[in-house]
Design brief:
It comes from Tricholaema leucomelas. It is found in: Nucleus, Nucleolus. InterPro entries: RNase_P/MRP_Rpp29-subunit, RNase_P/MRP_Rpp29_sf, Rof/RNase_P-like, Rpp29/RNP1. Keywords: Nucleus, Phosphoprotein, tRNA processing. With 200 residues, this protein is an alpha+beta fold. It has a domain at 73-189: Ribonuclease P/MRP, subunit p29 (SH3 type barrels), CATH 2.30.30. 30% of the residues lie in helices and 18% in strands. The chain has six helices and six strands; from the N terminus they run αααααββββββα. The protein has helices at residues 4-18, 24-33, 58-64, 80-93, 103-112, 184-187, and strands spanning 119-125, 134-140, 144-148, 154-158, 162-168, 171-176. The protein has a six-stranded antiparallel β-sheet with strand order 4-3-2-1-5-6. 14% of the residues are buried.
Length: 200
């Protein structure tokens, strides 16, 4: 703590700096006769509105070719490690896919799971040329799957009027594309209702 003389010297020095135009006698007169009120005005910072980052429009995405896979990268073997990662992801999601696992539980998990990396086969279709196509899902959009086949061909398969099957550890599940027309991000939050037979 400061002593009395130190405090007095500090106040005199502070007042000289704050009021350089006043003489020492005038400062002493102010100290003797009046109370000095020291005020501090905090500068209020103007609130800056956070600008939400705007994503690319569909036209900009097409122009930038964000979702296009280069021809030299369209090789089946290149994406086999992705498939292995997907299998491990599904095993972790379904707690190991044990033989005594409930099919409804596994199907419920698969409905909301990310399918990038899954090997799917078109088992039924209104267009006969699609039936039998098998490949790894590289991209999933709202209405189509983009898959790479063993022949290193990139196929765009519509979900509408197609039934897909995927197999993992002996468990086969069927995807009715007509009821699956959602983006992957939307699908993870959707509540699916169990229904009976679904026609193409």
């Amino acid at each position: 703590p400061q002593g009395r003389e130190e405090a007095k010297a500090f106040i005199n020095a502070f007042l000289k700096r704050s009021m350089p135009k006043m003489k020492d006698e005038a400062i002493q007169d102010v100290l003797t006769r009046k109370a000095v009120v020291l005020e501090h005005y905090s500068k209020t910072k103007a609130k800056q509105k956070r600008k939400k980052p705007k994503g690319f429009t569909a036209k900009q995405r097409r122009e930038l070719r964000l979702f296009e896979i280069e021809p030299e990268q369209q090789r089946y073997t290149l994406f086999l490690p992705l498939h292995e990662l997907w299998k491990q992801y599904i095993r972790d999601l379904c707690h190991g896919l044990k033989p005594d696992a409930q099919p409804y539980m596994v199907q419920g998990k698969l409905l909301k799971a990310d399918l990038h990396g899954a090997i799917v086969t078109v088992t039924k279709s209104r267009c006969p040329s699609y039936v039998g196509i098998t490949g790894i899902i590289l991209q999933e959009f709202k209405h189509v799957f983009k898959i790479i086949t063993k022949e290193d061909k990139l196929k765009v398969i519509p979900k509408l009027h197609n039934v897909f099957s995927l197999e993992i550890d002996g468990f086969v599940s069927y995807i009715y594309g007509s009821k699956f027309q959602l983006r992957a991000s939307e699908r993870s939050a959707k509540k699916f209702k169990l229904k009976g037979t679904i026609d193409l």
